[in-house]
Amino acid sequence: MFIETETTPNPASLKFLPGRQVMTSGTREFATPEAAEVSPLAQAIFDTGEVVNVFFGGDFVSVTAAPGVSWTDLKPMVVSILLDHFVSEAPLFAGGDASGISVPAEDVLMVEEDPADADIVAQINELLETRVRPAVAGDGGDIAYRGFKDGIVYLTLQGACSGCPSSTATLKHGIEGLLKHYVPEVTEVRAA
Q1: pLDDT of 96 strictly over 70
Q2: Cα(177)–Cα(57) distance, rounded to whole angstroms?
Q3: What is the pLDDT of residues 152-177, one digit of tens each?
Q4: pLDDT value for 102
Q5: CA dist 155 → 110, 145, 162 (Å)
Q6: What are the angstrom distances between the C-alpha of 60 and each of 47, 102, 159, 164, 178?
Q7: What CA–CA distance (Å, rounded) separates 42 from 45?
């Protein structure tokens, strides 16, 4: 087995591609060692002591190094952990699957939406699914919709994208421009 790595726009994060499916559906982010306890793989990566975020995508794992940690030393450790996990075909989550694990809902809204905006929200979500998510996944992350109110779309960047220096530019220039172009009711995009 060979695990490829890709850089991400976030210099503290690397994207690891095991050449096989990681998550069967959805994504999962672990921002603390305590959160990682539900996944033997995420926990093993946090156990290096040099990691501050682990993110599982459909076919990749993004890892964010702690401040001051060199990827020269950390990368071989993470590759070794990933190889051990995937070669042994160990379960991704404790108990063999994700049942019974409390996962924060991706559809938790930060604002109370107006039911009259249902068509606008549907357009926004369609664009996020078809245009934005694939691009953000390519950079080792994901995006979660958090609401629409008074022309403002609230979004949360996850994985490698959450602490990326260019995340503000991604939201403001990339996603905001796209949404404003296709959905005239959108006036602004904000991080939630």
Answers
A1: no
A2: 25
A3: 999 988 887 777 767 777 787 789 99
A4: 42
A5: 9, 5, 11
A6: 19, 22, 11, 18, 26
A7: 5
Hey, which bits of the chain come out as E strands? 4-7, 13-17, 28-30, 51-56, 61-65, 141-149, 152-159, 188-191
Report the pLDDT value the prediction gives residue 107, as an integer from 0 to 100.
Answer: 55
Rounded distance between C-alpha atoms, residue 131 and residue 174, angstroms = 11
Rounded to two decimals, the pTM is: 0.75
The Cα–Cα gap between 70 and 188 comes to: 37
Report the C-alpha gap between 31 and 36 in whole angstroms. Answer: 8
Taking a C-beta distance cutoff of 8 angstroms, is the pair 51, 9 a contact?
Answer: no
User: Does 141 score more than 60 pLDDT?
Assistant: yes
The number of CA neighbours under 13 Å toward the Cβ of 9 is: 18
Return the half-sphere exposure (C-beta side, CA atoms, 13 A cut-off) of residue 143: 29
Per-residue pLDDT band for 66 (boundaries 50, 70, 90) equals very high
Distance CA 111, CA 190 (A): 12
- The answer to whether the CB of 56 falls within 8 A of the CB of 50 is no
The amino acid sitting at 72 is T
Q: In 10 A of CB 65, how many CB atoms?
A: 22
pLDDT exceeding 90 applies to what percent of the chain? 64
